[in-house]
Design goal:
By secondary structure, the chain is an alpha/beta fold. It has two domains: 212 residues, Spore Coat Polysaccharide Biosynthesis Protein SpsA, Chain A (Alpha-Beta Complex), CATH 3.90.550; 61 residues, no CATH class. Helix content is 43%, strand content 20%. Strands 1, 2, 3, 4, 5, 6, 7, 8 and 9 form a nine-stranded mixed sheet that branches.
Length: 277
């Protein structure tokens, strides 16, 4: 078992022009209120943002009780993967904690995840279950998943069962594969998990809700259109070529996702909700 005092955590976050200042503040406040406060927050500003967001960042950065925050600015919005890779280079912690700029980490999230990694040196990435919400007072649905490595790998062949903002990963493993690929569209997290697994990384998911994920109708609509399906086809073909999927798995999942991505949004939302419970 590794002593908790010998490992450190960097939180990797991004924000961009369309983020709301009040959501960014709530996300950052949820980090300040952790029972184990991270040693560093790396916040990448992905292109120009409004004054309201800048005021939130300035206010919290000047708060004595707030963790050390490293601010990085990109002149133009280049997408999540590019921003995360830029931030990854500035992370000093042994572990990288992902967090989105509009989500809410429960107060014991980092303590639970860090304690697990500290006491399980064979595990490289730990995540948790999560809940989705629109109104902060009410959760819409839960996202659950298998918890043990082999079951997680099997589930990942069919769909992405890991909520990206819930992960805590060893920085050495993340850097060993070169961070995120910037050519897979909105599938940078799914692609990351596959490449980590192929590189020998071991996963564990804690069967407890440790993060509340903010969602919108627009985000749900983005999950289904022709361009998304084409991008997903390329991704799954790459999974077949690198051996993560066999031919039967590739063809079967491709057919399923053709249906899922190209049907109307109302029906897709019902199907999406069905697999979240």
């Amino acid at each position: 078992m590794i002593s908790a005092r010998t490992t450190t955590v960097s939180v990797l976050m991004t924000t961009y022009a369309r983020e709301k200042a009040e959501h960014l503040r709530a996300a950052l406040e949820s980090l300040k209120n952790q029972t184990y406060v991270p040693e560093q927050i790396v916040l990448v500003i992905d292109g120009p943002i409004d004054i309201a967001q800048r005021d939130v960042i300035k206010d919290l950065s000047n708060t004595k009780t707030f963790p050390q925050i490293t601010i990085l600015e990109l002149p133009h919005n280049g997408g999540l993967a590019k921003a995360l890779n830029h931030g990854l280079r500035a992370c000093t912690g042994d572990y990288i904690m992902r967090m989105d700029s509009d989500d809410l980490s429960l107060h014991d999230r980092l303590m639970i995840e860090k304690t697990y990694l500290d006491s399980h040196p064979d595990i490289d990435l730990v995540a948790s279950w999560s809940s989705e919400f629109v109104d902060e007072a009410n959760d819409l649905r839960l996202k659950t998943s298998p918890t043990e490595h082999d079951a997680i790998v099997e589930a990942l062949k069919w769909r992405n069962v890991i909520a990206h903002p819930t992960i805590l990963v060893r920085k050495s493993k993340l850097r060993a594969i070169g961070g995120y690929r910037e050519t897979v569209g909105l599938l940078e997290d799914y692609d990351l998990y596959v490449r980590l697994i192929l590189n020998g990384a071991k996963f564990h998911i804690i069967p407890k809700i440790l993060l509340r994920v903010r969602t919108t109708q627009e985000q749900r609509a983005r999950r289904g259109n022709l361009s998304y399906f084409i991008n997903e086809t390329r991704f799954r073909y790459q999974c077949f070529r690198n051996g993560f999927l066999n031919a039967k798995e590739f063809l079967f999942t491709l057919g399923l996702y053709a249906l899922f991505r190209l049907i109307g949004t109302p029906l897709r939302n019902r199907l999406y909700a069905a697999v979240r419970i």
